[in-house]
Design a protein that fits this description.
By secondary structure, this protein is mostly helical. The protein is built from 2 helices and 2 strands; from the N terminus they run E-H-H-E.
Length: about 120
């Protein structure tokens, strides 16, 4: 068994921030679509008009907002893990050594030598 005793706070925070930034990029088109539908529905129903620019700004800012919050929560999560791992131990993991797999190079049917690319 191998035990994870601590996690690098900044390295985990960077990875979490980038992951949530990517999530924000994936959600940005959804925000644009919702803004478009809200604007169309508001015009047709004669109700309140949702400014489409608000949703465009949300779509632009969402990756940065998600990334910032992911960075902060990742750092807090890593700090909490390190604190708890110091008290009760870390996460135990078991690893298995796997032999490398080598590609099979076909031999020439005439000479028996490996084929050259």
């Amino acid at each position: 068994m191998t035990r994870i005793k601590s996690v690098g706070v900044m390295s985990f925070a960077k990875i979490a921030g980038l992951g949530y930034f990517a999530l924000g990029l994936l959600l940005a088109p959804l925000y644009l679509f919702i803004g478009l539908m809200a604007s169309i529905a508001g015009r047709q129903a004669g109700g309140p008009q949702f400014p489409a620019a608000l949703f465009v700004v949300l779509a632009i800012l969402s990756p940065f907002l998600y990334g910032g919050m992911g960075f902060i929560t990742g750092a807090i999560g890593a700090l909490v893990y390190n604190l708890l791992a110091g008290w009760v131990g870390g996460i135990e993991m078991e690893f298995e050594a796997v032999p490398p797999v080598y590609p099979v190079i076909p031999a020439s049917p005439i000479s028996g030598q490996p084929l050259q690319p």
